[in-house]
């Protein structure tokens, strides 16, 4: 049970927003439920301030779009992290071969040597 939903009578004009946000809580990960509930309430208030009259369907549509944005963001995060691969050389980006973190303890010397070699003229 969310704190906002339990105290919705004390929310002076935000009761309907709290009830709407509470209905969408189960659709997100448990760790993010309180955050998404507050995000929904703030977005509902911002959208209602722009309109003269709103219906319950409009409130649900706004809340649904906030949840959709949440899942889009989570998908992008997972996709970005999923592209990393652990190899013998260190952490690499899949498909590019770009090294992110090296397991070599003397990486500073290697980076300095490469930088020095780039400054030298071609043979």
Descriptive report:
The chain has 123 residues and is mostly helical. The protein folds into two domains: 3-82, no CATH class; 84-119, no CATH class. It has five helices and three strands; from the N terminus they run H-H-H-H-E-E-E-H. The chain has a three-stranded antiparallel beta sheet with strand order 1-2-3. A hairpin with a 5-residue loop joins strand 2 (90-93) and strand 3 (99-102). The longest helix has 27 residues, at 56-82. The chain is elongated and about 75 Å long. The model has no long low-confidence stretch (mean pLDDT 82).
Keyword list:
123 residues, mainly alpha, 2 domains, 5 helices, elongated
Write the layout of secondary structure elements.
Layout: H1 3-6, H2 15-24, H3 33-50, H4 56-82, E1 84-87, E2 90-93, E3 99-102, H5 107-119
Antiparallel strand pairs: 1-2, 2-3
Helix pairs in contact: 2-3, 2-4, 3-4
């Amino acid at each position: 049970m969310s704190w906002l939903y339990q105290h919705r009578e004390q929310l002076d004009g935000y009761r309907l927003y709290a009830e709407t946000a509470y209905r969408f809580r189960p659709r997100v990960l448990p760790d993010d439920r309180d955050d998404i509930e507050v995000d929904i309430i703030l977005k509902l208030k911002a959208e209602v301030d722009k309109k003269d009259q709103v219906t319950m369907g409009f409130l649900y549509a706004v809340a649904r779009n906030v949840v959709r944005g949440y899942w889009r963001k989570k998908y992008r995060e997972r996709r970005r992290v999923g592209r990393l691969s652990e190899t013998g050389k260190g952490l690499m980006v899949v498909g590019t071969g770009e090294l992110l973190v090296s397991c070599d303890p003397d990486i500073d010397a290697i980076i300095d040597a490469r930088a020095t070699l780039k400054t030298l003229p071609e043979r």
